[in-house]
Structure formats: C-alpha cells, structure tokens
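Record format v2
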Amino acid sequence: MVLVLAIGDLHIPHRAPDLPAKFKSMLVPGKIQHIICTGNLCIKEVHDYLKSLCPSLHITRGEYDEDSRYPETKTITIGQFKIGLCHGHQVVPWGDLDSLAMLQRQLDVDILVTGHTHQFKAYKHEAGVVINPGSATGAYSSITYDVNPSFVLMDIDGLRVVVYVYELIDGEVKVDKIDFKKTPTTTI
Amino acid sequence: MLPEGSLSTESSPERGDLGGNRGFWELRGVQWRTDLGVLPCSSSADDVRRVTANTRRRYAALRRRLLIDPLIHKDGSNFPDPVMDNPLSQDPDSMWGRFFQKAELEKMVDQDLSRLYPEHGSYFQTPGCQGMLRRILLLWCISHPNYGYRQGMHELLAPLLYVLQADVERLSAVRKLYEHYFTDNFDGLTFHDSDELETQDDQVKFHNLEELDPKIQTIISFSDAYGAEGELGIVLSEKFMEHDAYCMFDALMNGSGGAVSMASFFSPSNGPQNGLPPVIEASSALYQLLAVVDSSLYTHFVELGVEPQYFALRWLRVLFGREFALEDLLVIWDEIFSFDNSKLNSENDHETNFEALNSSRGAFIASLAVSMILYIRSSILATETATSCLQRLLNFPKDVNLGKLLKKANSLVNDAINAMRSAPSPMYSDGFHEPVKPVTSMGFRTHSLSSDAAAPRSPLSVVRDSYWEEKWRVLHKEEEQKQTNPQKQSQSQRKGWSEKVKSRLLRTESDPSSSKAYGEKTGPSRRRVRRNLLDDLARQLGLEEEEETETEKAVGGNGGSEENSSIFSDPPSPIGGVNDNDNDNDNENHSEHSSVASNLLVDENDRDPEPELEPEPKPSNVADSANAIQEVYDNGPGPVSDRPEDATTPLKGVENEESAGKSGLNLKDRIILSGKQWFWKFGKNNGDCSLEKGGDSTNSSLVGRDQKSDVASSATDVTSKGESVNQNTICSLKNLGQSMVENLQVIESVFQQEKGETGHVDNLSKKALVDRGQITAMAALKELRKISNILSEM
C-alpha cells in the first residue's frame, strides 16, 4: 500500500502562479510515500513545497527547470515495480508511444512516467505501462489545446498498481481509476 | 456443577500463594468475566458455554469486518465511486479515510505497546501477545470512534489478557495431572504408541469426574470439547484468548450498563449531569470521601493546593495499574470486580452528583484510593509543598501490605456510598428543607458523615479556598507590618479583592476547612451563609471606599455586621482594611487579632486572640461587642452620610454600614473564632450592631441581646438557605434581602425600646449621640429597606 504521487509540468511561475486550490487541499503531508516529478517545476520554491509533502522526492530535469542539477532520467524501485522517470522533451516525437516504449526498454522499467505534453495519458502495452501525469497547473502548452490540470496517484500494492487520475475539469475534481497488474517476472 | 463458589475469589484480601507462580488455583479469567458481565452468573455450564460462544462469534465478525484490507474488494463489481474513495479523498468515511485513521491509531497503539510492562516482557513483549493486544485495541477504538485511543487503555487490557493466559496455563497444568480425564480413552484400548503404564493406570482409576476436587471438575468441564457449542464453547481456551480478552475489555470500558465505565474516564468531554469531565467528578468524589474520613489530611491537601485529579487521573484511568506490581494489581482487581457495578438508587429524587462512581464498585474504587492515601498519610503530612506531596502520591511504595489496604478500603465503602449519595443536589429549592441548627450544638469539629458532601463543584471550590487562604495570608502579613497606618494600599487590594469576591459570589460551601470549622452547621446552611457573607463582603468592600463615617453606619449595623462577618469568613483582608479606616487602634488591633484568628484553616481555628473573650461564645460575644460598640460610638460618630446611591445597588448600600463596620469589626474580630463561635458572633454582630443604634449599648444590649441572638440565628438561618451553585445567585440575594428585612425589623424594635430607655439618659452628649444615632438609624433603616426591595426584585 505505497502511495506514489506522479506530478509535473507546473511551470511556476512562468506560465502559472500556483497549483489549483482544490489540488492543494488534497495534497496533505503524511499520506504519500513517494513523489516522482517529471520536471519543469520550475523554481526552487516548488521543489521545497513538494519536499514538504513528502521527503522522498524524485525529479528529472525539464527544459525550463532552473536547477540544472536534476538528472535527465531516473529509475526507482518501489515494491515490486521498477519505475522510470524522464521529462519527455528528449524523446522525439513528443508523446509518441513507440518512442516512449523504446525509452522504457532502455531503462528497463515496468512503469515509465514522462511529461512535457501537458496531457494525461496512460498506456499499457506488453512491456509495461507508460503514464503521463499531464500538467498539475494546467500550464499552456504549444502542442496541446485545452490543458486541464491533472496529476496521478499510484497505489502500489504487491504486484498490482492502481492508478488514480485526478483532473480538474470545469472547476471540479474528477477522479478515475485504472488497474494494472504485473505478471511476476521470471528470473533467469 | 459449575458452582460460582468454587471459583469464588471474593475471599479475604490476603492471598498467600499469589506469588510469582502462574498456578492460579482460582480461575481468575472466568471469575472476572463473570464479574464484568461477559459471562452469566448462571450455574449451568451450558449457559456459560453458550454465552462464551456468542461473544466470541461477535468478536470474530467484528474483526473480519474492520480489519479487512480495503483494497481487497476493489476488484469486486461494486466499485466505490473513485471520486469519493480515492486515497487523497478528504472524506473521512471513505475507505481510504478510514485506512489512514487506522494507520494513525496503529502508530499510537504501537508506541504504547512497546512500553508495556517491560518487567514482564517475557510474556507481554512477545510478538504474538503484542499482535493480539494491538488488534484488540484497534478494533475497540475503531468501533468506539468517539473515544479514540488514549494512553492507558493498553494498561487496562494487559492484565485481562494476562489472567486469561494464566487460566489457560492452569488448564494445561491440570491437564497434565489428570490426563486420563481428558482423553477419549474409555476402554483402555489405545493406539499402540501409548505407554504400557498408562493403560494400567487407566484401568485402575475411576473415570468419574465427580470424584475430583470440584475446582478441577469445573476446569475440566470448561474445557470439554463436547459440551454445548463444541469447541467455541470451551471456556478456557487458548485459541480464543483474543476474543475473550476483547469481550472483557469491552465490558470493562462500557461498565456493562453499570455506573462505572472506564471509557468515561478517558473522555475529556463533560458528563451530562454536572458539566464536568467524569474523571474530574470521580476525583472530587474521592476528595469528598477523604474529607469525610480524614479531614486533617484533606485540609492539608487543600492548603497545598493539591487538586485530586493531579494524581487521581492516573489512578483512575488505569485502575491503579501503575501503582502496583502486576501480581498485586490482580488481587486488587479481584476485589474491585467483585463489587457490583449497577447504579445505586439515590433516595431523594435527584440523582447524586457523582455519576461516574455511582455504584458499589465505584464506591469501592473511591475507598481504595482513599485508603491508599491514608496508607502514606504520615509522609504526606510531612510534605510542605504541592510538588513533594504529589511526588509521594505518584510514587506509591512498592511493597504494601495489600491485606491491610484492602481491608481498610472495604471498611470505607459504606462511607463512600453515603458521601456520594448525600451530596446535595444542585437545585436550590432543596436547601430549604435543611433546618439550620448551628446555634445550639457546641460541637466544634463535628461534621456528620452524612453532612452534605461537596457540591459537584468541590474541586473548584477547593481551589478557591486555597486561593483565598493565600490571599488572606498575604494580606495579613501586610497588615501586621503596617499596624497603625491607614492604608490606601490595602484598600486598593481590598478593592481588587472585592472584585474577585464579587465575581465569585457563589462560593460553594464545599470548602472543607469551613466544614471543619463550622462543625454542626449543615452543609447547605454553611454554604448559604458563606455566600451571603460574600455578598456582604462585596458590598462591604465597596463601602470601604467611602469610609469616612463610622459609627452611624452602625445603624445599618445588621447588614454591616453580616458583611463584617462575611469579611471574616473570607480572608479578612478587608477587615484589615476596614480596620485601617478606623481611627481606633484598639479596634484595629482587635481586628488584626481577629484576622489572625479568622484564618479559617483548621489549625488556627482554635485560637482566640481576644483576651476578653471567654470560652463561651454567647455571653462573651455580646459583652465584647457591646463594649466595642460603645467604644466605637464614643469615638465620635461621623456625620451620617446618607448615600442616596445606596439604594440603587446593594453594594453601595453596604457602604452605609461600613462604619458600623467598625463596631462590626470588633464584633467581627470575635467572630473569627473557630467553629460555631464564628456563627455565633455573626449572629451577635447583627444583634450588637443594632444595639449600637440605641447608643446605649449596655442597656440595649441587654434588651436586644436576646432578640438579636434570635434574629441573628434566624438571620443566619435565613441566610443559610441558599445554594452554592451559580444558578442560585438570585436566590442567595433574595435571602440576603430577607435577612436584611428581618434585621431591619429587629433594629426597629430595639430602636423603639431604645427610645423609651434612653429617654432618661443622663449624659447629654450621650443623648445627643442617641438622637443622632436615631436619625442615622432611621436613615440606615430606610436604605436597608431599599436594598432589600431591590434584592427581592432580583
């Protein structure tokens, strides 16, 4: 029962002033065990805020991030799952599933979390799961129209992960749930 | 054959063989379960087994329901709406919300459990036991969300589990000894792997259970796997220890429909009746009993300012679990549980004021606490500060003579029940049926056991009392230093003090020292008097501000004397102040002395600083006051100051009487004597002050004395009615008004007598004084009337 928050593309302060209030009220410290952040925060204050929600914060570098010390990609193991993290502007064409799958195979992870498109996506294919948490602030994107603020919460429990998607549509928080099960890997 | 007797543990407190061995020859687990109401008291084994089985089933169902992983049925078809039931949902009812709450609870419980009974760690710190304890506590807290988990609950649960474990071990011991009774071996033909010897033995012995010791019989019948409800009905069962422990814990916390429910001790919310948290209520009940049983110790506590809940909280919440070693605690709990927990019916219509302990079990708990306090009595009395006193209390000696302790506690149970039952109801109306008999009995320190226990607010009044005492002492020291100087400071102090007095107009009479001091006077009467005094005091203090005139105020004397006495009853700082106003050093001295004497604490009550005072209060008071009055009078009464504003407020009206205060002061001085003497003087003051008006103290005193004393007593009677609870302010004021009216009447009557007598006064000045006195008397009378009108309107 590990709760992992996947969030990114906030673009604070350049394109958005802050998280939506409803999201902020939901994100209280103490509930979440890990935060994985795709990037483009952009400033340190946002980093500190996320850190206050949960001390275990993993973040990769987006093209607008002001802290250049973030890595380009990151791999984390939580429970039985290997999670890969990358901002996604490195993978061209942006948002293309096959290219992302290539990255996933490269990183050898079960779940790949990327961003940059500011649009929520969750694909399942034979190798694993690709999740795009979208933009938590609904910041402007040159490649997506009508960006809705969204983020993702993953509940990892053994070999099963439940993905909750929180989207702010017309001022209301909508929650959706997706179940993924991992087939037990056979070790050679 | 399930005689309760065989399991009886209500035997004498002396338990010889308790010692560290685990071989309890009485089945505590079963006994406690019966006492707590988990098992029925019926004599049929089947009934017991059935009830056992049912309780276990309930627990199992509860466990299944509440501890199930919320995720598991997510795969089911009935998906909870994700919007409501996501992990970040703020909704506390959502599965996730409950999950997080449970996680919090678990954290707290684990923290406590890790520190549970480290000296018995071999049992309590094993993972199996810890797991059981955790589950039980979590389930209980989840099913009782309004209590949550509080520290200490685990300490209540641990001994319960312990005795169940002990029972099981006993069972296995018996099993070993009487193995052949447990086997299904009936004809000596067993499987080949049994001993040759065994079969021989089997053939020799009877398999008839009746032959065995009844205790063993019960043990065996309890563990018979073929009885009612089969395995689930085995009363002494290891498999179902968790279930049984949960049921016992639940019964203990709920009180099983009785009065004492441990859960209420954990809740901070106010009880329904008194507006006090139950644990505070219970602590005050404890103090009440202590006051009844050992008042010197009680006053010692009050002096130090030790409130009962400082130590009683811990005692009550874990039922003395922290004060005794585990083995001793088991004995004590045996005794506690043996008392019935059903609510005691109170004789009058009102319920008692101590709902939290309103059963014989509660009474025993209170008496046990008191007997513990008495056990370390000498060391407590030796303490000088509250901290050291609490230290002694909270570090109860480890090796105590349990037998003595329990015997003493048993002897106090009846007292406890009476103390709680006889607590006066807070309704004002009840006060009226209490006849006041203060003036007659001379018993100094008698307070009948059935005298009203402290009102529910006794803890508060205890605080107030010590506050007043301190205040008094502080002020008294000041006065001693500046004897002859008129003091504005003390005045201001007094003023500030009068504020406080006004704000605490309704002192409850639960003041123990007063109870001690006022001996025979019954509680409510005491209370009323005190309250009236407070009123008077307030007015008096208001008066002091305009204190120039003295003697005429004597006219208003009655009221003034009342107030004066009230000043006495409370820390007599005002007395000092008033004294300062006086020009009469004599009076000041008197009042100082009296203020010294007025220390209401027990020790000083006996002091009689006044040399003139004779042991007999009545005559001396009158004489003295008469003399005092004369002195005062001779000193030259100031102009009568009619205070028109007096009519408006009682406060100001008092000012009128302020000068009378002077004479009253002298009177007051005497009044300060302990016990009823105090009340006597009170009455006397009334009388004397009125005498004053006549100007011819001796004559009038003689004449009016009787009347005055009557009036005084009636005044006190009247004032005695009343109530210490807030709601009765109005009533008390009404009483005040009444008493004032009566006083007025007396004054008038005396006055008229005076007129007749003083017609032939030789001394011209005296006559002048008399005339003036008369004028002032009339004026004061008028004002008194106004005041009483106002009061009665209120």
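The helical segments of chain A are 21-26, 44-53, 97-107.
The longest helix of chain A spans residues 97-107.
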